[in-house]
Model the fold of this input.
Amino acid sequence: MTKLLFRLPCPTSRFLPNATLAGAVLVLLAGTAAAQRGGASGPPEHAAVEPINDGTNPYETIRDWGTLPDGRSWGSVSAVDVDIDGVHIWAGDRCGSNSCADSDLDPIVKLGPDGNVVQAFGGGLIHWPHGMDVDSEGNVWIADAASVAEVGQDPTASGKGHTVIKFSPQGEVLLTLGTPGEAGDPPTHFTQPADVQIAPDGSIFVAEAHGAQFLDEAGPTSIGRISKFAPDGTLITSWGSWGYGDGQFRGPHSFAMDSQGRLFIADRGNRRIQIFDQEGTHLDTWYQFSRNSGIFIDANDVLYAVDSESDDNYNPGWKKGLRVGSARTGEVMYFIPAHESARPSGMGGVGSIGEGVAADAAGNIIVGEVGPIQGLTKFVLR
Done:
C-alpha cells in the first residue's frame, strides 16, 4: 500500500556482517537435529553475520493495545496493516484462538487511534488470517494460509483457506484468488499462502508456502513460490523454488515494498530478507535483520522487521525482537527486545514478540502477537 510520511528520530547507525563467528555458528547449525520441528538448518552465508541483539530503543511499549467489542478476547494476530489515512489500524484476529475454522466471529477489525474497533467483517469466510495488505484505494487483502499442521483442522472440511481474498473497506468480497479449502498450484489454487502485497499499479503478489520452513530437505510438499497477478486476478508469472540459494525460499512469510517498487520478502526459514524487482529478478539478500516473521516499509523507506522465532536451535546467537533500519542501505538502527513471557514462544527460547508489523503516520509501531502473548502491542516513540 501507499505508506505515509513521518519523522524518524536521528538514528545511530550500526550493523553489518562479520565473519568471525562463522565457524562457531556452523557448528551450532550442524547440531540442530533435536529440534521440536524440522527446519532448523539455514544457508551457510548466514553464519558469517554477527548477530545484532542490542542497541538504541526509542520506543515505549504498550501491551494489550486495542479492545474488541462485546468483551471478546484477542486470539493470535499475524495480519496487521495501517489504513490509507495513516491513523486507523487493520488487524486479522484468529477468532479468539488460533483459527476461525469453527467460528462465525468477524476476524477482520479496524481500530481507531484510541484502540476501539470501528468496523469488523469477514465472519465465516476465513480459516486462518495470516497476511494482510491495504491497497491504495483502502481495500483490505487477506492471505488465508490454512495450514493443517498449524491449526489442527482440515481446511478441505471447512471449505475455507488456501485463498487470497480482496475486501472493500466496508467488507464486501470483491475478488477471491485460489480455490477455498483446496491446496494446489496457481493460477487456480494456492498452497498455504502466507502473505499478499499490492503494488502501486494494482499488481498482486502472493507468497507460498507457509509450512515449507519446517523442512530441511526438498520433497513433495516443499514449495517456495512467489506469484504475480494482474489487478483482475490473471496470473502473469511465478518464480522461486524451495531451497537455500538466492531466489529460493523456505517459507516466504511476509512482504513489503519500498519507494523504488522493490519487493522485500521475509524468507523466514532461511533467516533473511530477499529483495527482487517486480518481474522476479533477484537484487540482493540481507541477513542482518534476523529471522523475520513480519516486515513493513514506510514512505521514508524505514524498514521494520520483527523476529518472533529465533532461539539457540532455529537461529543460533540471535534474539527475538523488532529491528528497525533502512530499506535503502540495510543499516539496522534500533532494536526492541522481546517481551518477557511465562513460557517459550514461536519455535522456543525465551521471550515473546509478534509476527505482524505496521507503522502509522506518527511513527508508532503496531505488532500482532501470536503467542503465548496475543492481541496487539503498540510501540510509541518517546
Observations:
- The radius of gyration is 19 Å.
